[in-house]
Every structure is written in structure tokens, then in C-alpha cells.
Amino acid sequence: MSDTAIDLISLGVTLVGLVISWGVYRRRGAASGMRGAALSLVPLAAAMTGVTEFFVDLAFSPVKWAGAGVAGLAVLLYLTSGAMLSRRAGGDDGGKGAAGGAGGPKAAGRGGKAKPKGEVGGAQPSGDPELAEIEKILRNRGIS
Q1: Type and span of the H or E element at 28
Q2: Strand, coil or helix: what is 19?
Q3: pLDDT tens-place string over residues 122-136
């Protein structure tokens, strides 16, 4: 597409946008009208800086589309490898996740030899006998 055609199309789109922005200004106020005018000036600015020509060349060039496809494939491979690495890191420690020991004391207290987290600090006497009884029941069931 020639530069003149791109400039004329961009100018036409800008003028239509400015006319619509004037109507929006009359109906909804100055802030909405200014926002519309700002967006209406973008096609003209793109044509004047050469950005429009880049996008026209991109749209009609099979080589550039192939490059965009390769870039998309690269992003897809990168994201897939990140997901695979995060699964592998989470699977090495028995599915406990990246926290390292988030489920450790709870899991060890259920059937195990290790004491639950509550028993280490549970030797302290509590002032309330009912609370001590509740703590004892919880320890017996491996909850605390």
C-alpha cells in the first residue's frame, strides 16, 4: 500500500473519530469528549510516525507472519517448560510443595514417630483446667 493511501485512510479515520468525539462532548461532557478526541488522534499519529506502515507490512507479509508464529511458539515452549519445572519441584518432596515442610508436622503426627508441633510447646501448663483437657484430647487424636 502506498504512503498516500495510508495517510488518507488515517486522516479519514481521525476526522470521523473527531466528529463522533464532538457529539460525545455535547452529550456526556468534556471529559468523555476529550478522551474520544485523544483516541481519534492515534491513527493520524501512527501514520505520521510510520507505525501504520509497519502494521500494513506485517498484515500482508507471509515472512513476518511466520516470524510471529515462531515467536508465539517460543513463548508457548517457555511457559510449558516453566509449568513442567514447577511440577517437578513440587513432586520431589512427596507433594509437599515449595514450602518445604508445610504439611510435615501434621502428616508426621498422624501415624508417626515424630511428635506433632503442639506437643513440643505443649509441656507448658495452662491456667485453665478445661483448656488443658481440650489440649489433651486434641493431642490424643493427633490434631495439635
Answers
A1: helix 3-28
A2: helix
A3: 555 567 888 889 889
CA distances from 73 to 9, 15, 67, 76, 123 (A): 34, 39, 10, 5, 59
DSSP per residue, 56-114: HHHHH-HHHHHHHHHHHHHHHHHHHHHHHHHHHHHHTTTS--TTSSTTHHHHHHHHSSS
Which helix (H) or strand (E) segment holds residue 25: the answer is helix 3-28
Q: What is the pLDDT of residues 85-122, one digit of tens each?
A: 888 877 655 545 445 445 544 444 455 555 555 555 55
